[in-house]
Amino acid sequence: MKTLNFTPNRILSQHHRQEIYEGRTSLLPQLVILGAQQFLAALPGSLRADRHCGEFEIHLVVQGSADFWVEEDGFRTPYQVRAGQVIITFPDEQHGGTNAVQEPSSLYWLRFRLPSGARSFSGLSSPETKELKADLQAIERRVFQSTPEIAACFSGLLVEHRDGQPHCSVVARSLFNQLLVRVVRSANQEDTADEDVSPRIRKALQWINQHLHESISVNEIANQAGLHSSRFRRLFADQVGYSPSDYLARTRIERSKTHLLDSDNSITYIAHALGFSSSQYFSTVFRKVTGMSPKEYRCLHTTSSEDDPTDEPKGD
């Protein structure tokens, strides 16, 4: 499984660690903030609505997934960003996390400003800067596949900020310019996410989705893929971004959300229908993934009839 290369300098909780450089600790004037963070459990309130004046923001999800929304034409458009994908938001766009919750994940991110007027990016000529600015502003795909080179640029930028070696700003400048170019290239390429999943792992994914209601083990899934358990675990994590057990749990939780909102079935019934051994275990996993209990999730997303604006007052 691909891992986050970072050294936390902020331990916000036992489940949330960050490495962040901003303000005086940033090596580049155009780099507003650079960071990496790891969420071992869902963190409510960590992705509230935000808007960055004149600043682009780029996230690269390394492990897990993240559910974002971006305001587009007056509506909040949802985006699920999986491991190995990038999401970009443009200056002045309002955005945030679904329900303001950051789900379990590891990611890199940065915010930056484009040079104003006729100014150039440091290290680039005026024509090169003009072309790169135009290409960044013309990106149409908000979510797209990352590359090892993009991840390496993020990792390298963190190393230069962290270690403070001689000429670190020179190296950081080169890495930053490379990162922007590679983001433009990746945004303009065809999405090859499905091609990155081998036929055996794809077969395992299909089998999992067809047997969510059953009590199944990782060994059973590996057998369906025709692989030894240890090799299956390694390939699955590398290609999917989760361990098999994490993927199974998260897929069940996603399925349970539909049951919670589209039926009146009890939480215990839903838990057993999706292969959980008990409602207590279901609630524990649900809270770890979403940051709230199944009951809280149902209440949050279900509008009571008393609050329905279409209800007409009854006559006397």
Identify the notable features of this structure and list them briefly.
316 residues, alpha+beta, Jelly Rolls, Arc Repressor Mutant, subunit A, 22% strand, globular, disordered C terminus
Describe how the helices and strands are arranged.
Layout: E1 10-13, E2 16-22, E3 31-39, E4 43-44, E5 56-72, E6 75-82, E7 85-89, E8 95-97, E9 101-102, E10 105-112, H1 126-137, E11 143-145, H2 148-163, H3 168-187, H4 199-210, H5 218-225, H6 229-240, H7 244-262, H8 267-273, H9 279-290, H10 294-301
Helix pairs in contact: 2-3, 4-5, 8-9
The percentage of residues in β strands lies in 15-25%
Individual helix count: 10
Give the total of domains: 2
Biggest sheet record: 9 strands, antiparallel
List unreliable stretches of 5+ residues: 304-316
Shape: globular
Beta strand count: 11
Which structural class is indicated by helix and strand composition? alpha+beta
The topology string of helices and strands comes to EEEEEEEEEEHEHHHHHHHHH
Distance between the termini: 66 Å
Tell me which CATH architecture of the largest domain applies here.
Sandwich
At the third CATH level, what is the topology name of the largest domain?
A: Jelly Rolls
In CATH, what is the class of the largest domain? Mainly Beta
Specify the helix fraction band: 25-40%
